[in-house]
Amino acid sequence: MSAVLEQAIVLHRSSPRSSKPAADVAWTVDAIQALFELPFPELLFRAQTVHREHFNPSQIEFATLLSVKTGGCPEDCGYCPQSASFDTGVKASKLMELEEVLFAARRAKDAGATRFCMGAAWREPKDRDIEKVAELVNAVKGLGMETCATLGMLGEGHAETLRDAGLDYYNHNLDTSPDFYGDIISTRVYQDRLDTLARVRSAGVKVCSGGIVGMGESHRQRAGLIAELANLSPYPESVPINNLVRVEGTPLAEQAPLDPFEFVRTIAVARITMPKARVRLSAGRQQMGDAVQALCFLAGANSIFYGDKLLTTGNPDTQADVDLLHRLGMRSGAPEVC
Ligand code: SAM
Ligand code: DTB
Ligand code: SF4
Q1: What is the pLDDT of residue 17?
Q2: Is the separation of the CB atoms in 151 and 202 below 8 Å?
Q3: Which helix or strand (DSSP H or E) is residue 238 part of?
Q4: What pairs with residue 314 in β-bridges?
């Protein structure tokens, strides 16, 4: 066994990170890469052990997404069908009306979702956008659902306004490692993302932040993304792991698909390094198959996006997800940390 691998194992066994969220031990990229390189059964066993320390491993959160403002985005994220820089056939639309959003949220709740996440294709919302989204958040919160919003970079006071309206989580993904970021996005820098996450955290809104795998990043860069997330202090309460959805018209449309076991490994490493987070098996499930999804649950995923659509692309239909959990003897519900 290599020295780095031993370090990863020792670190995992002895580090307070396995039981305390705000740990004093930083994860090195080497140690995380060594976790990725463990034999698959060993990695899954470790991830399951950590998962069971904090959660009921049979419970999966259902979070429903709604694109409340679609397309026409000035950013050039190479994976995204909503960027105005690419011809993907996504039509730009204005912010949805309150009644439409409430209708979708009620439907999601009736179908069993506990979290409702509203996404907008903005680089950064204006003050008046925040006022309008705050009304949406307040109305959805009134239904008794957990609320989440993903609106791009936040300015001064935005996170506080959303918090006061009842926002539980703000989603803002680091997406990939710092050294691969510039290959994917040219219109903003990594530090912009970190600055928004700091604003969210200091307003007392819970952080939802993860990334995308399968964009052509190296093994080390995949480990680098997890290191960035796990070393946020504290690490995010919610960690979406997206498998790239290859959309025609985007620069990443022809990207070779990722080995599904590598995706499962990413979930497992996220679970080990962020033990109390809700780790979400996010975009890419429609292309994945039931067996790989089941492996992701074994690797410590305890949340999925639930509903026929993500933002602009497809997702398994709700009955298929209900059936999948039933076949696995699992159940839906907001996972509580124990
Ligand atoms: N505009 C805001 C932002 O960028 O933060 C919010 C919406 S944006 C669509 C939210 C996240 O969706 C991105 O950070 C990215 O992780 C994910 N995403 C977008 N397109 C994707 C794709 N084709 N495959 C997988 N994930 C994708
Ligand atoms: C996240 O990490 N993934 C979601 C949500 N947060 C906003 C979005 C996935 C989008 C997939 C491409 C689309 O449907 O447009
Ligand atoms: Fe815009 Fe967000 Fe898509 Fe980037 S990921 S192009 S910021 S909507």
Answers
A1: 39
A2: no
A3: strand 238-243
A4: 309
Q: Which of 328, 336, 280, 309 is nearest to 107 (CA)?
A: 309
The answer, yes or no, to whether any atom of ligand 3 lies below 6 A from the CB of 80, is: yes
C-alpha torsion 181→199→145→213, nearest 10:
10
Amino acid present at 90: V
Contact predicate 139/116, CB 8 Å:
no
For the record, the structure tokens of 137 come out as 């958040």
Q: Is 220 a catalytic residue?
A: no
What are the φ and ψ backbone dihedral angles of 330, each rounded to 5 degrees? -110, 175
Collapsed DSSP state (helix, strand, coil) of residue 241: strand
At 4-40, the pLDDT tens digits run: 445 455 444 434 333 333 456 799 999 999 999 999 9
Pocket test for ligand 3, best of 65, 70, 77, 153 (most atoms within 8 A of CB): 77
pTM beyond 0.85, yes or no:
yes
The radius of gyration computed from the CA coordinates of the chain, to the nearest angstrom, equals: 19
- Hey, is 259 helix, strand or coil? coil
Q: Which H or E run contains 61?
A: strand 59-69
Written as six digits, the tokens of 267 are: 């979930």
Which residue has the least CA distance to atom 4 on ligand 3? 77
